[in-house]
Design brief:
alpha/beta; 5-stranded mixed β-sheet
Length: 300
């Protein structure tokens, strides 16, 4: 991340979704942009197809542009200079003319279990119900605790927590970073070990997308975090090589250890068995590492 000033002569217009989490993430991005790029910003809300279609299963939506396409269009047609996304929502193929100019420092990448009685995953009684509409979370949960009941649950974080508190389920699975950004981190009964419950590719990372070679892209690029960019590129390359978005029960988690990039991939098969591959590589070659891990998962 580099601190500097660019010749931006007006406030940058930043597009965001309207949920509480999206707004919180945008506030984090705006604060960082103001600090490192010394720019003024204006934020406006764009309602995505995913927000307008609460009854469509999440497995058919996430990672396919349902939560990003309208924001991208706002940037392309000039209503916005940049858009802020949860990096895990971005499709592997961005719209022509757009690029991710900044990946912000990663928050907690783990999944969190929120149980009404505060129990950890291992302590939930047989037959307890867990709410999630993520094929990845459902597959990994069934592999670890086949005795639990998985119930479909869509909606933003507040909606899911209300359903939990109202007794519709005994527990829910959510991204730990989302809870933290909403000031709800204490609700987590357990933050699941990412070695066992491998996170979604790019989970916990905020992405800033802008038009290629625009003044706004140069300004926003000052907020880019090199480590976040490396781990996200490795994880998303696994996703790109193996399938499409969150319909695939795939986890990918990269981190830098002793100067090397280490990537763990996990893919649940139709037989319910979770296949894993973990490799280390050069931090400067995240795509090569992602491709190798994907090849091993695909061949398993």
């Amino acid at each position: 991340m580099t601190t500097g000033a660019l010749a931006v002569t007006r406030a940058l217009r930043i597009a965001t979704r309207g949920s509480a989490l999206a707004r919180a993430q945008t506030e984090l991005a705006v604060s960082l942009l103001q600090r490192v790029a010394h720019v003024q910003t204006e934020v406006f809300v764009v309602h995505s197809g995913g927000d307008r279609s609460p009854d469509i299963p999440a497995a058919l939506m996430e990672g396919q542009g349902w939560f990003t396409a309208e924001l991208e269009q706002a940037v392309l047609d000039g209503r916005a200079d940049a858009a802020v996304h949860s990096a895990k929502d971005l499709p592997t193929q961005l719209a022509d003319g757009l690029t991710v100019v900044a990946y912000l420092p990663r928050a907690d990448a783990r999944d969190a279990l929120v149980a009404r009685d505060g129990l950890a995953l291992a302590d939930l009684p047989a037959g307890a119900s867990v709410g999630t509409s993520s094929p990845r979370r459902e597959a990994f949960l069934r592999a670890l605790r086949p005795d639990l009941r998985v119930l479909p649950m869509r909606g933003n974080v507040d909606t899911r927590l209300r359903k939990l508190d109202g007794g519709e389920v005994d527990a829910v699975l959510l991204a730990a970073a989302g809870l933290d950004r909403l000031g709800l981190g204490e609700r987590a009964s357990e933050r699941l070990d990412p070695h066992r419950f491998v996170p979604s590719p790019a989970q916990g990372v905020i992405a800033v997308e802008a038009r290629v070679d625009s003044t706004a892209s140069a300004a926003c690029a000052l907020a880019d975090d090199a480590v976040s960019r490396a781990v996200v590129r490795a994880e998303r390359e696994v996703l790109r090589r193996l399938g499409a978005g969150c319909r695939l029960p795939l986890g990918a988690w990269a981190r830098v250890e002793e100067g090397r990039l280490v990537l763990l991939g996990a893919l649940a098969g139709e037989d319910g068995v979770v296949r894993r591959a973990e490799l280390g590589g050069d931090v400067a070659e995240p795509l090569a590492l992602g491709a190798e891990v994907a090849a091993r998962l695909g061949a398993a």
